[in-house]
Amino acid sequence: MNELKKQVNNEQLKLIPKIEEYIQYMLEVLLKIPRVEKFNIGNEYKKSIYKMLEHAMYISKITENKRLDYLNKIDAKLNCQRIYLRIMYKNKWIDERKFKIAISKIAEIGKIVGGLIKYYAKNN
Question: What are the CA-CA distances from residue 17 to residues 13, 34, 80 (Å)?
C-alpha cells in the first residue's frame, strides 16, 4: 500500500508540469486564431485552462477526502477543452497538426487525472 501511495504522489507531481506545458502550447495556438474568435472562444479556453491549473494546485494542499472533487473538476475542464478544440478544428481556426498535438497533451493529462481519480475513489 505504501508503494501505491508513493506512485500516487509521483503522479500528482507530474500533473502540474504537464499542465504548464499544455498551457504554454495552447497560448501559442490561441494567439494565431482569427481575431474575433481569439476574444470569444480564446477567452473561454484560457479561463478553462487557468481554472484547471488552479484546481491542480489545490490537490496537494487539501485533505485527501476533498481531492476527488478537485480531480473531477479538472476532468470536467479537460472535457470542455476537448470540445473547444473540436469547434476550432471544424471551423478551420486551427490545423490538423495543432489539433492532434493539443488532443494528445490533453490525453496525457487525462490519464494522470484518471489514475488519481481511481485511487481516491477507491480509498475514500
Answer: 8, 28, 20
- The tens digit of pLDDT for each residue in 4-54 reads 665 666 666 789 999 999 999 999 999 999 888 878 899 999 999 999 999
- Would you list the domain boundaries of the chain? 2-122
| DSSP state letter for 62 | S
Burial class for 13, CB neighbours closer than 10 Å (0-12, 13-18, 19+) = exposed
- pLDDT at residue 1 greater than cutoff 60: no
- Whole-prediction pTM: 0.88
- Kind and range of the H or E run holding 20: helix 2-31
User: Counting runs of H as helices and runs of E as strands, what totals does the chain give?
Assistant: 5, 0
Report the C-alpha gap between 117 and 124 in whole angstroms.
10
Report whether CATH 3.40.50.2300 matches the domain 2-122.
Answer: no
Distance CA 65, CA 43 (A): 32
Angle at 22 between CA 39 and CA 73, to 5 degrees: 80
Q: 14 is written with which cell numbers?
A: 507530474
